[in-house]
Amino acid sequence: MHWNWKRIVAITTHRPLAVALLIGGIYLFASDTWLAISTDLAAQWAPDKTDLEVIVFIKGLVNALIMAGGLVGLLYPLFRQIAADGKLHRQEEEALLAAERRAMAGVLSLSVVHDCNNLLTIAQGYSELLLRKEPQLDEGVSNALKRLTNSLEQLTLASSRMLTMGRRSVATTAMKLDLSSFVRESLILVRSHEQVRSCELEFFERGPVPTVLVPAMVHDTVLNLVLNAAEACGAKGTIQVRVEACEQWSILEVHDNGPGVSREDRQRIFETFYTTKKAGSGLGLVSVRACVDAHEGHITVARSPLGGALFRIELPREAVRLDAPGRAASGGTGVAEA
Question: Which of the four CATH numbers 3.20.20.70, 3.30.450.40, 3.30.565.10, 3.40.50.1360 does domain 175-335 have?
């Protein structure tokens, strides 16, 4: 007989009370049957009280050995399968973290290229200004300025191509999904994180919220915001995630009961590598801002009714051109006075 231990583990996970009652019933039936048979045999074989005590002891010992052997035979393969599933889960979690690191590297690369493009444009403008304003420059200096201007122009074009490719690669993954269901599924994964397990994580939704979004980016945003909240409020803290629709916007809010974000820090927490944590990388909220900008949305930091921080994200419900030039400029970050 071949036992499908994966199916047994799945049943145990989803219906633990039924499985526990079944095992308890089997144990009770086997114990009662053995008790009845052994008592009858003891009454027949024991000629006096001393022999009866010996038979009862042996009966109890045999009962314990049989039940121990049965439990070992039942639980060993079950626990082995649970351990294998746990190992697979850890491997999947590590693979997810590696994918997130690669995605973060891509976001940071685009951010660096964007900043370099701005600086190159400024430098190119100054070199062209020098050529126009100083027509009587020495021929050698004039030629050097022309070569410098051409080089800066080529670098600017190269950085622009990199930005365009990066934006188009993001746009190909956009699709229309129910934001409520998507966030709920993302929270199932983040609940297994060691920092979140000790917190009370609550999810509130007001029906379906159809939204055009990039699943990978929004998933990372939910992950980063919930992990930030868990780190802020600590063990046994409270985290609330809310999703609702407001006219043409889809609203995602993450609340916590931690110390909150000071007004000074609200101006800087979205800067690359800026962090208020001892072991922080300063990259999580950069990724969040990149996601909001890519969707032409808005993010606001305020004080939550729970007493801690509130991160409120507004995403347009209709499709946006994620590869359109200047798309990031339409998004933004804000600081609430509350």
Answer: 3.30.565.10
Q: What is the pLDDT of residues 43-57, one digit of tens each?
A: 676 666 676 667 777
The whole-number pLDDT of residue 304 equals: 94
Summarised one tens digit per residue, pLDDT across range 168-225 is: 554 446 788 999 999 998 898 788 777 888 899 999 998 899 999 888 788 889 988 9
Helix (H/G/I), strand (E/B), else coil: 241:
strand
How many angstroms from the chain centroid is the CA of residue 250? 20
Cα→Cα distances 222→92, 186, 219, 322, Å: 18, 7, 5, 20
Question: Distance (Å, rounded) from C-alpha 304 to C-alpha 311?
Answer: 8
> From CA 330, how far away is CA 49, in angstroms rounded?
94
Distance CA 239, CA 190 (A): 12
> How does pLDDT run across 264-280, given as a tens digit for each residue?
888 777 776 666 665 55
DSSP string covering 277-329: STT--S-HHHHHHHHHHHTT-EEEEEE-TTSSEEEEEEEESS---TTSTTGGG
Q: Where are the domains of the chain?
A: 1-172, 175-335
* For helices 215-233 and 179-190, angle between their N-to-C axes, nearest 10 degrees: 50
Beta bridge partners of 241: 203, 254
